[in-house]
Amino acid sequence: MSSVIKQYSLTDISNLYRVAYGDFELDAAGWDHSELIGMIQKSSKFVGNRLEMAQLVDWGGGQSSGALPSSSVAYINRPFITAKSVYATSVIDSQSMKAARRAGSNLGAFMDATELSILTMKRAFADQVARQFFGDGTGSLGVINTVTSIGPGQYQLAITNASWLQAPWMLNDLLNIDLGTDMFLVSAIDLANQIITVSRQTGIQVPNPGQNIYKQKSRNNEMFGLKGVCDTTSGSLYGVPVGYRWGATRLAASGQTLSVKLMRELDQEMRFWARGDLPTDYIMSATQLKLFEDNEDAKSIIYLQPEVSPERQSGSQVAAVKINGRTVRLHWSPYCQEDRLYAINRNKVHMYIRPDTAEGNDPGGFIENGDSIFFPLQVSGTPLDSYGLFYASYSEFYINPTFSGVITGLATS
User: Fold this and answer.
1) Is the Cβ–Cβ distance between 319 and 281 less than 8 Å?
2) How far apart, in whole angstroms, are the C-alpha atoms of residue 142 and residue 158?
């Protein structure tokens, strides 16, 4: 009787060794918004649902010469904001937490699993704050142009040119479509053709052309950003009717390329509207910054070191320009619409948040479970072998429209 003993190759033996990973590189998956978010003033004043301010619009009576004047009440607006809940969540099973942590060593794992979950979640949260800063509160990521069914519950959604922006689309993201609550998972992104492939996770909803796409549970429930402020030309802003010295300054470029001339024109219009409190920053898309740099005399542009995260370049402050005798900083963001430039006064832009989330430039904080940030998860009363982490803010932007402006319809090529 004979037997055959399998001989192991070097490849077989190497599979028995543990893998040692190098550093975990997050930049390709995230975006450094430190400069942008650091620019927004944080104020921990939300202790309820609503916060009310007082905005002086005009002095009123009480001035004269030659005789005592008659007094009247100053014209004061009372804008208000209501808090929005903004979340990021992460789930990790307890066995992975233990496997990734072996006697204080991260060999054989990317890094400590809890550290990885916390890092990615905080970066994802900052990304959403930056996206909402350029939004209008509706939460729309794009409008469906055409729908192609490629399998049961699987669809290719072509996004309209007018609503297309690359940055909001993320692989493995969960989305809602139109009024529905069914969740769709992003499985592929075709940037060149503006096509998002989704797979339905729950329900029976079928997407249709003309419908808006949203982050899950975010429809009409996001913070009110620059697009909302600058596009509101009637009705009210922060509960105050748009009108005399209450509204953003708008300048139509009508297809012109961004230039110092257009910046000066916007600046002059804002000068009378805001009575001298002029923009400190211009924010634009990467496309606009490139065209501006390519078309302007280099003497017009001053290049600066970023104030926050100077070792990074993406999303950071890169330049400034001289406008009407003062230096105005230039920023770009992947969430800024391609054909726009926003002008803001950084002293008039606030993010009001609840007190326990105000930690320096960080726009959020962990939801705590007693002395821990880990929540044991369960389904129908049955405990699961996993924990949830929740990062959130109870907040809203307050962007004073009187000191804000926008150039629309800029050339994009």
Assistant:
1) no
2) 10
The region, left, alpha or beta by phi > 0 then psi within -120 to 50, assigned to residue 117 is alpha
User: Rounded to a whole number, what is the distance in angstroms from the first to the last CA of the chain?
Assistant: 80
Q: Mean pLDDT, to the nearest integer, of 241-247?
A: 92
User: Regarding predicted confidence, which is higher, 57 or 136?
Assistant: 136
The three-class DSSP label of residue 112 is coil
Closest Cα to residue 405, out of 223, 229, 277, 224?
A: 229
Contact 82, 220 (CB under 8 A): no
Would you tell me how many other CB atoms lie within 10 Å of the CB of residue 372?
Answer: 10
CA 113/CA 91 separation, integer angstroms: 11
Mind listing the pLDDT tens digit for each residue in 124-156? 898 899 999 999 999 999 999 999 999 999 999
Distance CA 157, CA 167 (A): 16
**Angstrom distance (rounded) from CA 41 to CA 373:** 26
Q: pLDDT value at position 314?
A: 45
Cα dihedral 290, 291, 292, 297 in deg (nearest 10):
100
Instruction: Name the maximum alpha-carbon separation found in the chain.
Output: 128
CA dihedral 172, 34, 213, 211 (to 10 degrees): -150
Closest CA to 364 of 87, 92, 102, 38: 87
